[in-house]
Specification:
This protein is mainly alpha-helical and 118 residues long. It has helices spanning 3-27, 29-53, 62-90, 96-117. The longest helix has 29 residues, at 62-90.
């Protein structure tokens, strides 16, 4: 796996653990677990994107590169939908706000990675 991809995924996991711990301490078990689950959905979806988009050897062909990225994004979207569907079907008492905050916080690491490159 590319070092930058590993950096992003590991930082996403670390951020989610910290946020889940903070939510647990501030608001209780349900908030902490919901934050952890939401972040996990984001991490799994991002890992799915990487595995799908990066498995194709596209070389310098821009059309193949576009198709690989599109396939990765589609797979990421599917994994995200499945993750949230499973949560809402199986975990009826989920705390919705922490769930979505946990998921959304994984996006912050992409911005940090872009700033890191500069």
């Amino acid at each position: 796996m590319h070092p930058q991809v590993s950096w992003i995924l590991s930082r996403q996991a670390a951020l989610i653990v910290v946020l889940a711990l903070a939510a647990w301490l501030a608001f209780g078990d349900l908030a902490g677990i919901s934050t952890l689950i939401g972040g996990s959905i984001g991490i799994v979806a991002n890992l799915g994107y990487v595995l799908r988009a990066m498995r194709l050897n596209v070389g310098l062909d821009p059309v193949k590169a576009y198709r690989a990225q599109t396939a990765g994004e589609g797979f990421k979207f599917l994994l995200t939908l499945i993750g949230f569907a499973l949560v809402f079907l199986k975990f009826k008492e989920v705390a919705v706000v922490p769930l979505f905050l946990g998921y959304g916080s994984t996006i912050v690491i992409f911005w940090v990675a872009l700033l890191k490159q500069r």
